[in-house]
């Protein structure tokens, strides 16, 4: 297909493309409205925080159907200097912000282990409206180096969800490997002349033409690639790495915790859960492949004398459709978490319990702002 035909074809269907819809859902506000809302929420946040209205509003919202808890999701906890070197910025919480989060949680919330929240639900126990669970995904080195010491200092429990094949390795997750490869090519002045980028750029530019500011190119690219078939996605990765290998050896970086560090975290009382063995999207696996993925992961944990948490966490944006959830229940997995929202949905005996989580990555600099973001508080509903 020629470029003109490709563009005409994409223009006919671009707004129906899954990647475009994901980008569109990410932010439908223009820049001025975002800035206006930011300052309004900041003012309201100070009013709520310093007037002592937080608990009153939380109780009001819970009576209206809001959940009594929030499950927070973190990935990398980095210093500003280390964060500058990261290719992907949307999974980072700055260390100084993380410390602010913990101070607030210690003062204003009841932070409990994930398994305790589950037991309270199963037993029908009352859950206070300021309950919080802390989770950390992927087992990045910064969790052990930066997050766990602070959690121990504040005596707060947490759960670490890990893709077991990556622990103790110098490998990278597929999207980190791809973005690193692009950076190598750019540094060597080699144009990114790959066919799939033409498709992506058309979607990316069309989306950005509809709003008044640019979305992050790297994050948008990964969102786009996640919508592709698994074979197509890995063929793209292979084609890019082939070009890089002709230039230089691919860098080996220790970005994950070691097994010894995971063992020490478990011994310190932190729960360890699985994200699968090879960080493969559950929705793309056959029933037999899904069973093997979970089996290998649990075996790896048990070999290191770690009793896995009975809650699993699929990879990012691996939305568990009912058929996948039904397969998990058949395998004995009835509790899982994921997503980036804070409500449960479609819970049943056949589909199990699905916890959604809230990522706190925005650069909130004050406790009132944090309260607003955590509880999604509003003076008026």
Name some characteristics of this structure:
single chain, 381 residues, alpha/beta, TIM Barrel, 2 domains, 6-stranded parallel sheet, two-stranded parallel sheet, 10 strands, 50% helix, disordered N terminus
Secondary-structure topology with pairs:
Layout: H1 3-13, H2 18-26, H3 31-51, H4 54-63, E1 69-74, E2 76-78, H5 80-84, E3 92-94, H6 95-108, E4 110-111, H7 114-122, E5 131-137, H8 141-153, E6 159-162, H9 174-187, H10 195-208, H11 217-226, H12 230-245, H13 259-267, E7 271-274, H14 287-303, H15 322-330, E8 335-338, E9 353-356, E10 358-359, H16 367-375
Parallel strand pairs: 1-5, 1-10, 2-3, 4-5, 5-6, 6-7, 8-9
Helix pairs in contact: 2-11, 3-16, 6-8, 9-12
Please, could you describe this protein's structure?
- This protein is of the alpha/beta class and 381 residues long.
- The protein has 2 domains: 3-24 and 173-245, no CATH class; 52-85 and 93-170 and 257-375, TIM Barrel, CATH 3.20.20.370.
- It has helices spanning 3-13, 18-26, 31-51, 54-63, 80-84, 95-108, 114-122, 141-153, 174-187, 195-208, 217-226, 230-245, 259-267, 287-303, 322-330, 367-375; strands at 69-74, 76-78, 92-94, 110-111, 131-137, 159-162, 271-274, 335-338, 353-356, 358-359.
- Strands 1, 4, 5, 6, 7 and 10 form a 6-stranded parallel β-sheet that branches. Strands 2-3 form a two-stranded parallel ribbon.
- Strand 5 (131-137), helix 8 (141-153) and strand 6 (159-162) form a beta-alpha-beta unit.
- Helix 3 crosses helix 16.
């Amino acid at each position: 297909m020629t470029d003109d035909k490709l563009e005409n074809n994409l223009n006919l269907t671009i707004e129906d493309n899954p990647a475009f819809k994901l980008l569109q859902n990410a932010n439908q506000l223009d820049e001025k409205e975002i800035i206006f809302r930011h300052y309004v929420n900041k003012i309201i946040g100070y009013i709520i925080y310093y007037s002592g209205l937080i608990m009153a509003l939380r109780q009001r919202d819970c009576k209206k159907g809001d959940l009594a808890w929030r499950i927070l999701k973190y990935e990398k906890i980095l210093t500003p200097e280390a964060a500058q070197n990261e290719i992907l910025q949307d999974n980072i919480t700055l260390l100084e912000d993380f410390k602010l989060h913990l101070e607030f949680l210690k003062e204003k919330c009841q932070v409990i282990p994930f398994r305790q929240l589950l037991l309270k639900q199963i037993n029908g126990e009352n859950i206070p409206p300021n309950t919080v669970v802390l989770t950390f995904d992927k087992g990045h080195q910064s969790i052990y180096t930066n997050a766990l010491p602070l959690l121990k200092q504040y005596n707060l429990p947490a759960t670490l969800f890990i893709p077991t094949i990556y622990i103790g390795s110098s490998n990278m997750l597929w999207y980190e490997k791809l973005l690193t490869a692009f950076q190598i090519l750019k540094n060597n002045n080699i144009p990114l002349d790959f066919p799939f980028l033409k498709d992506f750029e058309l979607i990316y530019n069309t989306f950005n033409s509809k709003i008044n500011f640019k979305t992050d190119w790297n994050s948008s690219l990964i969102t786009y690639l996640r919508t592709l078939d698994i074979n197509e996605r890995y063929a793209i990765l292979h084609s890019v790495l082939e070009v890089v290998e002709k230039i230089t050896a691919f860098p080996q970086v220790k970005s994950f915790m070691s097994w010894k560090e995971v063992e020490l975290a478990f011994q310190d009382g932190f729960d360890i859960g699985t994200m699968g063995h090879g960080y493969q999207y559950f929705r793309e696996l056959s029933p037999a492949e899904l069973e093997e993925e979970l089996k290998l992961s649990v075996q790896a944990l048990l070999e290191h004398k770690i009793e896995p948490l009975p809650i699993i966490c699929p990879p990012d944006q691996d939305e568990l459709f009912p058929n996948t959830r039904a397969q998990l229940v058949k395998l004995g997995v009835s509790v899982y978490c994921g997503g980036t929202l804070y409500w449960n949905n479609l819970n049943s005996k056949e589909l199990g319990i699905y916890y959604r989580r809230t990522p706190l990555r925005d650069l909130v600099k004050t406790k009132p702002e944090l309260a607003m973001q955590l509880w999604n508080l509003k003076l008026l509903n």
